[in-house]
Structures are given as C-alpha cells and as structure tokens.
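User: Show me a protein chain along with its predicted structure.
Assistant: Here is one chain, sequence first, then structure tokens.
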Amino acid sequence: MRRVIDPGKERRSINFIDNICYSHVTDLEGGPLDLYLSLMVQNGNSEMRLADGRDDEVSTGKQPVIVWINGAGWRGCDKNLMAAEMEFLAEAGYAVACIYYRSSAQGHFPDQLIDCKTAVRFLRAHAREYNLDPDKIGVIGRSAGGHLSTWMALNQDDCESREYSQESSKIQAAVDMFGPADVSYCAKKNMELIQDPSYRWHSMDETHEGALLGITRDMNREEILELADKASSIRYLHEDMAPLAILHGDQDPLVDCEISEELYRKMIELGLEDQTWLYILKNGGHGTREFFQPSTKQVILDFFNRYLK
C-alpha cells in the first residue's frame, strides 16, 4: 500500500537532553557528588543538526522553564522517573528540567533546597545555550518535591550555594502537589504512630522527616520539633512570595490533606488569595492517577500560563 499524506507542521519537535551536570556538592561523609538534570525542550530538529549541520525548524524564541522536583520521601529517586507525566508542559511550549537533588542519605535539610536553587541558577546561566527565558522560571513538585516547591516559592535569599552566584534563584510561580509543607505536623503524627509496635517505623530517625532532618535516637521531643519547624515552609510565608498552586487528594494516606488546607488558609490571611490556587482532588490518594488526568494537567497548565506566559 502506498499513500501520500500531509500531516502538517503544527506540533513542534521535543528533544530530551539527559545527564546535564548542574552542581558539584559533597555528601554527608564529605565525598564529592555531582548532581544532574535532564531537559525536555522544543529546540528544533536535533538529529538534522547533527547529521547535516543545519536545522529546518524555525525557532519559537526563548522558552519559559519549569523545574520538576521528584518526591520519594526525600529518599532520592531517578530524576526522570515521572518525566513522561511532565511532557504535557513541553508540548505546551515550556522547557522542562527534571532534577536530582541530594537524598536524605546524602544531605540533611536545607541541602535539598540549596540544590533546587542551584539548578535554577544553572538554568539562568545557560539560558542562551538551551534557548531558555531566564525571566520566566517556575517549579512543580510532588510529595517531598512539593515541600521543596513551597520553599522555592518563598524566594528567600538564604540557602544559596556559591555556584553560579551571579544568577538569581528566584522563581515566578510554583506548584505544590500534596507536599508536606508542615514537617512538624508529620513529625507529631509519627511520634504517636511509632508507639504501635506494628507500625512501619519504630523510632523517629527511621521516618522520612527523621532522615531528612538528621534526627538521632538521643533527641527529645522538643529538639525534634525544633528541627522540624525549621524545615516547615508553612512557618515562613510572606506577602512577597511567588504565586502558588496547591493540589491535594482528599484521601491521601501519607500526607494529610489538612496540611494543604492550612497552607491555603495562611496564604489567604496574608492577603494572597488572588495568587493562591487550592484544588482538592476527590478520591485522590498520594500521587494516584487523579493527579495526572487531562483535567488536572489543564489546571496546572492554566496556572503556569497565567504567570509564565
């Protein structure tokens, strides 16, 4: 069978550039550790450039950037684990950077926040190389990544590394997907649950937040909560922070929806209702399919389009 078809050129090509080293740090033992990101970007016919030295796609100009921050309880996971679910942002004309940040076994908070900020500064420093818009950068994260997204939205001047220090780490918009913005809330809950011998953990140092904070078994309740408070972005909200969208499932068994409800209430108290979106997903669990349905992705896209385009 032979046919001639005319598919047109409406959809643009998306290239996936992997293993871009964005930071050189040390782990908890002082050993060197390189951090990597990947980039999904509409930057033309890459294969033709390699094969023929030219490109047959006209540039769309600089693309706004969205940084994807994975979760996994701060324990660390492959930076590209959820990259496929973020392709809808690349289809919409955003460059999507999927980053690996130090796990709780490699660094204690705020090391993870420092890494996220370094990634943003790296992207600004290399904006021309990858055809990025350095003035329009957003972040989105799930679970532990949502926690880091809310921290990024604060746009504070601390927790900065020396790398690419000439660039700003400030962002223009953030999406928090079921993140534990109140780490103290999680710590208090686990303090009660570990009293049950059948619970998955038996001491606070074993918990996700315990590993993140570097909690040891000789710490008392007050010491643990002091560390947890310092890692809770909900304690540091202010009027000049970036616009924030919050998505949380009403049946989340790991991070209580009440955390996001309280985060939203505090944002409203600051007078930030116009730039704060809260969506409660009916029957949504912890990162269940409800979060990646077309209607949910459209909510995320509408938010980023408002603040980054």
